[in-house]
Amino acid sequence: MQKITYILTTVVMLLSFSVGCRAAEHKPKDASTVEREVLVGATDTAAYMPLLRDKRVTVLANHTAMFSDEEHIVDMMHREGINIVGIFAPEHGFRGAVEAGLQVENGVDPKTGIQILSLYNGNTKRPSDETMRSFDVLVIDMQDVGLRFYTYYISMLRMVDACADFGCEVIVLDRPNPNGHYVDGPILDMKYKSGVGWLPIPVVHGLTMGEIATMAIGEGWAKSAKLTVVKCRNYDHQTHYELPIAPSPNLPTQHSIYLYPTTCLFEGTVMSMGRGTEAPFEIFGHPELTGYDFEFTPMPNAGSATPPHKGKRCYGMDLRTLSNEEIWREGIDLSYVVDAYHNLSMGEAFFTPMFEKLIGVAWVREMIIAGESAEAIEARWAEDVEGFKRLRQKYLLYAE
Question: Do 232 and 349 lie in a common domain?
Answer without folding.
Answer: no
